[in-house]
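Q: Two folds, back to back.
A: First:
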Amino acid sequence: MNEALKDLGEYIAGALPQDVIGTELAFGELMVTVRPSSILRVLAFLRDDSTCLFKVLIDLSGADYPERKSRFEIVYSLLSISQNQRVRVKTSVGEDEPVPSATTVYSAAGWYERETWDMYGIYFTDHPDLRRILTDYGFEGHPMRKDFPLTGRVEVRYDETQKRVVYDPVKLTQDFRSFDFLSPWEGMGEILPGDEKAKADGEEEGESA
C-alpha cells in the first residue's frame, strides 16, 4: 500500500509541478502540500483525474502554529471509493491571508469552511454563506487559536427565572484547572467496580482445571 501511495504522490506532483510543493507519506496516508492559490486546481484534478477519482471530501480542518509566518494550515481529507485510497491535501496561509473556498469543487466544504472560519478565523473567499456555525450569537474571537484567552469572555445561557437569554462572565473554577494526569483506571484498587464476578469466574475455571 505504501508503494502505491508513493507512486500516486509522484504522479500528482508530476501532473501539477507548478502547484504541488511536495508529497510525503505520514501515518499511512499520502500528504500533498500545495500553494494556497492552487488549492482549487489541485482539488479539481484529484476529483476528476481517472487515476485519482477522489470524489468524496471527508473532512476539512485547520491547525494553528503561531510561531510560523504562515500561521494556519488547512487540511483537506479526500476519499476515492473506486480506487480505495485516501489523500490529505495541505496548504498554509498567514493570519490575514484568505484561501479560496472549495465549495465549487466539493459542495460538502460549505459547513466545514464555516466551522474553520468560526474556530480559527481563516477566511475563505467566494464562500456563499461564511458565518459562524458553532459559537454563540455575538461571540468575539476564534476559540481554537492558541492565543485565545481563557478568561475575560462571556457565555450565553437561558435563565429560567428571567425567561430570557442572558450573558454571564466565564468563570473557571480552580479545581477544574488542577489535574493529576493519572489515568482514571489507576488508583482504583486491584478489582475495578463490576469486575468482581469476572474474577470469580476466572478463579472457578482455574480451580476446575
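A: Second:
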Amino acid sequence: MQTNQDMLLRRGLLLEYATLGWNVIGVIILAITTITAGSVALAAFGLDSLIEILASTMVIWQLTGTDTTSRTTPALRVIAIAFAGLALYILIQSTIVLATADHPGRSLAGTIWLAVTALTMFALARGKADTGRRLDNPVLRTEARITLIDGALATIILLGVLLNTALHWWWADPIAALVLVLYAAREAHHAWNEAATASAHIGD
C-alpha cells in the first residue's frame, strides 16, 4: 500500500513528465515557427523550453534517486548554469536585432502555441509548488517557480508577437525577448543560492 510520501513522489514525477513532454513538442513547434517568422522572441522562448526540459530532467533524476539529498546540490547547480547561458544568449541576440532593425515576420502557429502554453504552465506550476511544499523538496519547489515564470513569459512574449502582428511594432518582439534576460539571470542566481544552502545542510 502506497504511503502519502510515495503518492506525492508519484504526483511530482507525473507533473515533471507532463512538463517534459509538453516542452519537447514545444521546441519542435517553436523551431519551425522561428524559422518561418524570424522572431527573436519565439527563438528565445524555444531556448527557454530547452532549459525547462533540462530542469524537468534534473528533477526527475533527483526524485528517482535512492538518496535524493545527495542529488539536490548538483541538480540545482545544473539548472543555475543553464539559465545563466540562456540569459547571455538572449542578451546578445536581442541587441543585434535591435541594432540592425531586423523586422520579424508573423506566426499564427507560434501565437496559438504561446497562448496554450501559458495556461498549461500556470496549471503545472501550481501542482508542482503544492507537491514540492508537501515533500519539502527544494529542487521541485525551484522548478515550480521556473514553470510559473515560464507561463508569465509566454504571456509577455505573446503580447510582443501580437503587437508586431497588429500594429507592426517590430521592436516589441526583441524587447519582449529581453524580459527573459532578467528572468533567466534571476533564476540562475536563485538556483545557485539554493544549491549552496543544500550543500551546507549536507555538510552539517
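Q: And?
A: The chain has six helices and no strands.
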